[in-house]
Write a structure and sequence with these properties.
Strand order of the largest sheet of chain B: 2-3
Largest interface: B-C, 50 and 71 residues
Order of helices and strands of chain B: HHEHEE
Distance between the termini of chain B: 39 Å
CATH topology of chain C: Amidase signature (AS) enzymes
Radius of gyration of chain C: 21 Å
Shape of chain B: flat
CATH class of the domain at 5-43 in chain B: Mainly Alpha
Structural class of chain C: alpha/beta
Number of strands of chain B: 3
Number of strands of chain C: 11
Order of helices and strands of chain C: HHEHEHEHEHEEHEHEHHHHEHHEEH
Distance between the termini of chain C: 16 Å
Helix content of chain C: 25-40%
Strand content of chain B: 5-15%
Strand content of chain C: 5-15%
CATH class of chain C: Alpha Beta
Largest sheet of chain B: 2 strands, antiparallel
CATH superfamily of chain C: Amidase signature (AS) domain
CATH topology of the domain at 5-43 in chain B: Histone, subunit A
Chains: A alpha+beta, B alpha+beta, C alpha/beta
Number of helices of chain C: 15
Oligomer: heterotrimer
CATH architecture of chain C: Alpha-Beta Complex
Chain lengths: 477, 95, 489
């Protein structure tokens, strides 16, 4: 029997606001347990929430960037359940009137384009963290993350395989980063996905029973979880079993999903309107203003790069695929005005150094304006390309200013032809054997002689100049 | 409406309340009385009436996104029945 | 000199004129509490040391001009469901055993900033759920007006502390009548302000969309002054509104239109209460008001709508009490779930559990529309009915409760009967309106009867004027019960 897979995603994205959604505690990642908490985010009796305006602003931005309709009359609802990471025993969320609805994100897999529909995006608060303490056998509760604003982005079950899911997540992540609403650091949990998956035999029209796998936090784990769960469900069905609608936990180390204990998990959240918060009304003007402030999104940028800068399509694809590469590109371009050069540097050197130093693109720390300066130095023949590569490594790892660095280390090319000529002459004089071979017809030897010059010049000359002078001088011998 | 054992158990589980057998019987009886009394509402014609959660049309109350100092964790955990190094402590959780 | 019989403003004037010191009146009040509260049990916590320290501070502040409020230096007390930094705050529940908040509720803070001296925390029904103050974990409070009578609830301690002259004024909270009904039962004056007028920040929530803090005092003037201090927008409470009241009382009510809803005087209303309330209406008419009867048929839906909404919100609000972060934790448990079950089952009293269960039920899957949503629609209908009435009338007049103070234990085992006693008060909370209670007579047994006056939204001043005019021309509010003392000092 052949099976079709149907997948839906619920992506949780932590917003990069300065403060939490309902109190003024910082959202900064990390920190000793419970050092970013107050009476409000720990749910002390008598405390009340006050909504952070920036959260609404970011939610609207996200909705507009994902082609959603913005709900102009918003309310918050309480989702009630007991768990120690949720100090009020309810999560403030949006059930009845989510802020964004009916959007879509376009993806492309193996050359095939497809729109993934977004059912809704709602605002809610994050929960705290439970840390198992080996020493006492107890669990420690840390509320630093509790109350950090989240957007939950719910897709329709429009995916048919893991590749589409990854393409969507990649695209979504890039959009969220472009519009500056989230850093999307999966390893810090600021982007997490719940995967809903069902399978059905080909020919069957109604969808199979779905399971949900929660909080998977890397693309690779998501791909493996999808494959693992798909296989499990098919095996259950083909061996005559039945899929139970349940929440499962994906254990990426074991490569298996496990049913979560369901005894106390009756999914009856008793949602009702949050009485401590008032409705949020979003005017047309507000939406228009956010629209006007929206930065250029990946699709538009791609088109522009192709048309305006005539960059190769592959390069454009890679660069516009990441907000961080775009930032490097645009900043460097602003300094040097050489689109093709900047693009080449990014595609070759920046990505090479990132790989070599095992740095995620989003963590690249050097000031991209320096790349523009570096390109200018090459263009002005202050340094040659070889030197520029070395300087770039320093720039990448230590964020040095190339102009300063070149000056301080005396790396400028010798643009005094007389001085270069003197070196060329001395190399010819000191290598009679090689010169003899050249005269005997060996062209290879010329390269050796130029190399010798460059060595003596410590690489600080324009190889083209050396070449020309060498050719001239050899003629004279 | 009849409040059954299953219902009272289900509601008890949702609200994390364990009723002793005796308590359970009287709770069932009282709840049934109260819920049945509440059924008066069924007589009220609410066709086309918007459910009203706030009595007054207050809206768009916001806070600016400006960080204020958090509360010291020793203070936050001072009332906890059990705490360790500034963390609340609960019995081992799974998952 | 017997200060204790004075009103808050009278005492405030003496303090201002340096006829008496703040420490002296505070000591006097604490002594009275020591003697009287052994009988009445109005206090859950008495702040002997803190109050005296505060008194010294306030006296200094008055002397150097920091505190200029007419209430500066006047000893008062606060219902135990308002957070007070470092001072035990239990909402009269075992569940909050030992809980000392790390911050002070906005309303209390505002009074502190006006130079109030807090004597202690007042008894109440557990988590404000009840109408008799008998569901308190600290034992019942007694009504000073009769043998073995309840003071009403849930702010029973707030009313009794004033009625027995232990505090000059108090703060209570009113979710479905919790200020007004005890005021009626104890012969005190109180007001539940328009929803949003007083910040709820620091008020331990029962039903968030209905809860409102308000003052209890010995006269309309006192209550108006306290309300002026505690009202106003609070950035910490999203539902608070900019209703910063600066009340100026005026006893001219000529031409004021007062509506009497016929439906409030039907079956179930005690004859003596009815007579007293109608006599009060006649008195107001004599003072120049235009009094008229009208129909308000939505009354019967108020109680079910109220209890559905209040219980639903309570079931959620009270979920945070789980033995982990504060308060009571069961001493023995097997695992996390067991800790939750045991702490909650042992920590909450019967009435609180009952309301949590009802609230959980009405929100649970399959029942939400039939109960919760329907109740929110009924709320809208009730609000519309009031809106319509207020197109015609300035103030609505009614009884506060169907009877005078009940005997202890009378309704404790019949929750539905207890709920029905809230018939005249709950719809005011559903509609978010202000309502006040002034004493308007006594029954044969000498128990006080309270007149309820309901005002337009944000119409506190107009409402208080009617109460003020009434008190200027009657003396029910000046009557005192014969007090007993537990031990002679």
């Amino acid at each position: 029997m052949e099976f079709l897979t149907t997948l839906g995603l619920e992506v949780h994205c932590e917003l990069s606001t300065a403060t939490k959604i309902f109190c003024s505690c910082t959202t900064e990642f990390g920190g000793e347990p419970n050092t970013h908490v107050c009476e409000i985010c720990t749910g002390m009796p008598g405390t009340l929430p006050v909504l952070n305006k920036q959260v609404v602003e970011y939610a609207i931005r996200t909705g507009l960037a994902t082609n959603c309709e913005i709900t102009q009359y918003n309310k918050f609802d309480r989702k009630n359940y007991f768990y120690p990471d949720l100090p009020k025993a309810y999560q403030v969320s949006q059930l009845y009137l989510p802020i964004c609805q009916n959007g879509h994100i376009d993806i492309e897999v193996n050359g095939v384009k497809k729109a993934i529909r977004i059912k809704e995006i709602h605002m809610e608060e994050d929960a705290g963290k439970l840390i198992h303490d080996e020493a006492t056998g107890m669990t420690m509760v840390d509320y630093n993350r509790c109350g950090v604003p989240l957007l939950e982005i719910v897709s329709e079950p429009d995916f048919e395989n893991g590749e589409e899911v990854i393409a969507y997540l990649t695209k979504l992540k890039s959009i969220l980063q472009y519009i500056g609403v989230s850093d999307c650091k999966m390893e810090q949990g600021s982007l997490r996905a719940d995967v809903n998956l069902s399978v059905r035999p080909i020919g069957q029209t109604e969808l199979g029973t779905r399971t949900e796998m929660k909080n998977i936090n890397s693309f690779r784990a998501i791909a493996r979880a999808i494959e693992g769960e798909r296989k499990r469900q098919i095996e259950v069905i083909t061996t005559g079993g039945k899929i139970i609608q349940e929440t499962r936990r994906w254990d990426d180390n074991k490569g298996e999903s496990f049913a979560m204990r369901s005894k106390e998990n009756a999914q009856d959240y008793r949602y009702f309107p949050e009485p401590d918060l008032v409705p949020v009304e979003i005017s047309d003007e507000w939406i228009e203003r956010v629209k006007g402030e929206l930065p250029e999104l990946p699709e538009a940028k791609k088109t522009r790069y192709l048309e305006e800068y005539k960059l190769p399509e592959y390069d454009v694809e890679i660069i516009t695929g990441s907000k961080f590469l775009v930032d490097i590109f645009e900043k460097a371009f602003e300094v040097c005005g050489e689109a093709k050069e900047v693009s080449n540097w990014i595609m070759v050197e920046v990505l090479r150094m990132a790989t070599e130093t095992a740095t995620d693109v989003e963590d690249i720390a050097f000031d991209a304006a320096n790349l523009g300066k570096l390109i200018n130095l090459v263009k002005a023949k202050v340094i040659n390309r070889g030197t520029a590569k070395d300087v770039f490594e320093k720039m990448f790892t230590e964020n040095v200013d190339p102009e300063k660095y070149v000056k301080e280390n005396g790396l400028e090319m010798m643009n005094d032809d007389g001085a270069v000529l003197a070196i060329v002459k001395s190399v010819i004089e000191n290598n009679p054997k090689a010169v003899g071979e050249f005269k005997g017809g060996s062209q290879k030897v010329k390269a050796f002689l130029v190399g010798q010059c460059m060595k003596q010049l410590k690489g600080k000359a324009d190889p083209a100049t050396v070449n020309v002078l060498m050719a001239e001088e050899l003629e004279k011998v | 409406m009849k409040i059954t054992d299953e219902m009272i158990d289900y509601i008890g589980a949702l609200s994390r309340l364990k009723l002793q057998d005796e308590e359970k019987e009287s709770a069932k009886e009282e709840m049934e009385k109260i819920i049945n009394y509440m059924d008066i509402l069924g007589k009220l014609d609410t066709e086309g009436v918007e459910a009203m959660s706030h009595a007054f049309p207050v809206k768009n109350v916001f806070r600016e996104d400006v960080v204020m100092p958090s509360t010291d964790r020793e203070i936050i955990t001072a009332n906890a029945p059990k705490s360790k190094d500034g963390s609340f402590v609960v019995p081992k959780t799974i998952g | 000199m017997e200060f204790d019989k004075m009103t808050a403003l009278e005492l405030g004037r003496m303090i201002k004129n340096k006829e008496v010191g703040v420490v002296e009146v505070t000591k006097n009040a604490l002594e009275n509490i020591e003697k009287r509260d052994a009988v009445y049990n109005a206090f859950v916590t008495v702040c002997f040391e803190e109050a005296l320290k505060q008194a010294e501070k306030v006296q200094k502040g008055i002397d150097d001009g920091t505190f200029t409020s007419p209430l500066a230096g006047v000893p008062m007390a606060v219902k135990d469901n308002m957070c007070t930094k470092g001072i035990l705050t239990t909402a009269a529940s075992k569940m909050l055993t030992g809980f000392k908040p790390t911050y002070t509720a906005t309303a209390v803070k505002k009074l502190e900033n006006a130079g109030a001296v807090m004597l202690g925390k007042l008894n109440m029904d557990e988590f404000a759920m009840g109408s008799t103050t008998e569901t308190s974990y600290n034992g019942a409070t007694l009504n000073p007006w009769g043998e073995n009578r309840v003071p009403g609830g849930s702010s029973g301690g707030s009313a009794v502390a004033v009625a027995s002259d232990m505090a000059y004024y108090t703060l209570g909270s009113d979710t479905g009548g919790s200020i007004r009904q005890p005021c009626a039962f104890c012969g005190t004056t109180g007001i539940k302000p328009t929803y949003g007028t007083v910040s709820r920040y620091g008020l331990i929530a029962y039903a968030s969309s209905l809860d409102q803090i308000g003052p209890v005092g010995k006269s309309v003037e006192d209550v108006a002054e306290v309300l002026s201090v505690i009202s106003g927008h609070d950035a910490k409470d999203s539902t608070s509104v900019n209703n910063s009241l600066k009340i100026i009382l005026n006893n001219n009510i000529k031409g004021k239109k007062i509506g009497i809803p016929r439906d409030y005087f039907g079956k179930g209303l005690d004859g003596e209460v009815k007579d007293a309330v109608l006599a009060a209406a006649a008195k107001l008419q004599a003072l120049g008001a235009e009094v008229e009867e009208f129909d308000m048929p939505s009354l019967e839906y108020a109680i079910p709508a109220y209890y559905i909404i209040a219980c639903a919100e309570a079931s959620s609000n009270l979920s945070r009490y789980d033995g982990v972060k504060y308060g009571y934790a069961s001493p023995s448990f097997e695992d996390l779930t067991d800790l939750y079950y045991k702490s909650r089952s042992e920590g909450f009293g019967a009435e609180v559990k009952r309301r949590i269960l009802i609230g959980t039920f009405v929100l649970s899957s399959g029942y939400y529309d039939a109960y919760y949503k329907k109740a929110l629609q009924a709320k809208a209908v009730i609000k519309q009915a009031f809106d319509k009435a207020f197109e015609k009338y300035d103030v609505i007049l009614s009884p506060t409760a169907p009877t005078t103070a009940l005997k202890m234990g009378e309704n404790l085992n019949d929750p539905l009967k207890m709920y029905l006693g809230d018939i005249y008060t709950v719809s005011v909370n559903l509609a978010g309106l202000p309502a006040m209670v002034v004493p308007c007579g006594f029954d044969k047994e000498g128990l006080p009867i309270g007149l309820q006056l309901i005002g337009k939204a944000f119409g506190e001043n107009e409402l208080l004027n009617v109460g003020y005019a009434y008190q200027q021309n009657t003396d029910y509010h000046t009557k005192k019960p014969v007090l007993k003392t537990g031990k002679e000092a």
